[in-house]
């Protein structure tokens, strides 16, 4: 029986994501942040507007429980990476903002991410790279069930893990 290779899709996606995370963790460890903290920082910087990002929204974006996000933010706040403030419109809502330290690290991580992506995509010609990214975005769109699809809504790729 001849197959088109799709029977390995799940394993390949999982393994590729795991290897990317592992490489990001190795390279990003110089900043003293865990992969979960990096994911939060990336989402925070990408989502932040003038008013910050609500803790509940961060929990949704990271697909983890609000209490876990709260603990993660506690540790990051202690390290000077983020700060919390009450929302102007609702004092019960806690908004999270990246600090100058976080923004500076994010800019460095964007550069490191580009290096990791280049390593991952080595040997693939530009047209295959575009097709790969477009295909992955289509998979996310197909499986999103009306939720926010993978990556950002503007179809930018996420820069860190």
Could you please describe the fold and organization of this structure?
58% of the residues lie in helices and 7% in strands. It is mainly alpha-helical and 161 residues long. It has one domain: Winged helix-like DNA-binding domain superfamily/Winged helix DNA-binding domain (Arc Repressor Mutant, subunit A), CATH 1.10.10.10. Helix 1 packs across helix 5 (100-121) and helix 3 crosses helix 4 (66-78). The chain is globular, with a radius of gyration of 17 Å.
What is the ordering of alpha helices and beta strands? HHEHHEEHH
According to CATH, the homologous superfamily is: Winged helix-like DNA-binding domain superfamily/Winged helix DNA-binding domain
- Total number of helices: 6
Q: Looking at the structure, what is the overall shape?
A: globular
Going by helix content, strand content and strand pairing, the class is mainly alpha
CATH top-level class:
Mainly Alpha
Average pLDDT, all residues = 85
Cα-to-Cα separation, first versus last residue: 37 Å
Overall domain count: 1
Low-confidence stretches: 152-161
Instruction: State the CATH topology.
Output: Arc Repressor Mutant, subunit A
**CATH architectural grouping:** Orthogonal Bundle
Number of strands: 3
Strand order of the largest sheet: 1-3-2
The helicity comes to 55-70%
Largest sheet: 3 strands, antiparallel
Radius of gyration: 17 Å
């Amino acid at each position: 029986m001849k197959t088109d290779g799709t029977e390995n899709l799940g394993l390949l996606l999982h393994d590729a994501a795991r290897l990317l995370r592992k490489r990001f963790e190795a390279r990003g460890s110089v900043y003293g942040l865990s992969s979960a903290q990096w994911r939060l920082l990336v989402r925070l910087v990408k989502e932040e507007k003038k008013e910050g990002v609500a803790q509940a929204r961060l929990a949704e974006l990271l697909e983890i429980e609000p209490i876990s996000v709260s603990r993660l933010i506690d540790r990051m706040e202690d390290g000077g990476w983020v700060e919390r403030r009450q929302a102007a419109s609702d004092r019960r809502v806690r908004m999270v903002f990246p600090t100058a330290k976080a923004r500076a690290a994010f800019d460095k991580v964007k550069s490191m991410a580009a290096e990791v992506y280049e390593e991952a995509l080595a040997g693939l010609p530009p047209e295959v790279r575009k097709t790969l990214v477009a295909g992955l975005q289509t998979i996310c769109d197909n499986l999103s069930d009306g939720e926010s699809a993978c990556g950002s809504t503007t179809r930018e790729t996420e820069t860190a893990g």
